[in-house]
Predict the structure of Phospho-beta-glucosidase.
Amino acid sequence: MSFTNKFTWGGATAANQYEGGYNEGGKGLNAVDVLTNGSATEPRKVTWKKSNGETGATPLVWGQDFKLPDGAVPTLLDGYYYPSHQGTDFYHHYKEDIKLMSEMGFDVFRLSMNWSRILPNGDDKKANEEGLEFYDKVFDECAKYGIEPLVTLSHYETPLSLITRFGGWKDRHLIDAFVHYADIVMNHYKGKVRYWLTFNEINAMDMAPYMGGGLIDGSEQNRAQGAHNQFVASAKVVKLAHEIDTNNRVGQMLAYSAYYPYTCDPKDQLKVMEVKQDMLFYSDVQTGGRYPDYRLKKYERDGIKLNDNPEDYELIAKYPADFLSFSCYTSNVLTTHEADAKASGNVTAGGVKNPYLESNAWGWATDPDVLRIALNDLWDRYHKPLWVVENGLGSADTLEKDGSVHDDYRINYLRSQIKSMRDAVTLDGVDLMGYTTWSAIDLVSNGTGEMKKRYGFVYVDRDDRGNGTLKRYPKDSFYWYKKVIDSNGEDLD
Ligand code: BG6
């Protein structure tokens, strides 16, 4: 009872949290480059400036309305700390890091390409050669160790210039800009990369519209248009990818959470149904190929009008994603009743604390069955190959004097998750392509901008203010994961 021989193991990262080198090699700024650090209790902020010289910083709270003041555009300001600028410096450590990944036995390394490293303004005619060269070196290094790259084209990295000039993904100009960018990189890296993801956690458009869509006004109208524009862009990129290389496979990337009703009151079940609709709307369109009726009805009720044309829907139907990848860290409990202790989670935040599960210091519950539930749900709905491309435990690790890190809590978490995933494959027959944990190496937390919330198999010496040597230290989980990969998921002890 095991994974198939084709099953792939690895780890995931994102440029805005990992790469650093934010102003090196001709790179332009992106959405996250103007996002400050935060903490479990303090939200990250987008810093901005108005044409009259007024400046400020607006908090970005997941799941809440986001809008910059009228006339404000995101910009870098003195006196703020921006963690993406250095990340954990993959830009200068890529050789060492990819070697460490190969020591663990990675088949796959998921990384995102910084769109503004290739096209500094997001829609420049010509690519920035230095940017192309950087990823050439990265992919060559991967090839040296037989590691397959899985490339996210945009992991919350909308180029800042597209935000200031067009207001982000609400404008159809971004469809053309994104397809142009994909055209450049898919041609340039032909033969080096064959697995692509379009937008990280595409449903972040609703829960974190600045992250997901570079929207500085996250109104429902703008979110709906932003999502529509990304669906059309995705379909065009699937078409293009297949034309460029028949080996190319383009996946959707969805933020998935299992939702449980807190009581057996049917009203709680209805709430679960509605929250799941908000999540699965994104895969119904991008993977399923059509707008679901429940969403169209909602748009009708809310007076949302899309700037669309019939060709959009033909493209969406004809070029759905080749596979469905997703992130899944936790589950959420929903209720229409009064309940105490609030729980939290990444973009799938909300709900109340699950009395049957333990939570980490940031309030995310550890659910040993969530991946089996997620995989069955998505497999039954779409019957397309699935890929778990993010799953992991954020924790404050301790670097011991001898350079070791004893993260048995992370090993326990990952063990439970792999078992759950294995059940979905062996007991339920789900078609699962692979598993890339979050994260391969320590990097900046997306939600809080902290370094303290670590996910990697390798500790990086850097703190919440950017101090530290950036030296790498394999954790206990590094050696454990190596054993897991060596045994294709058999040896989880
Ligand atoms: C996912 C994102 O939502 O969760 C990652 O795709 C992110 O970018 C990960 O890092 C973990 O969330 P956080 O907030 O703990 O970094």
In short: The chain has a mean pLDDT of 95. The first strand starts at residue 8 and ends at 12.
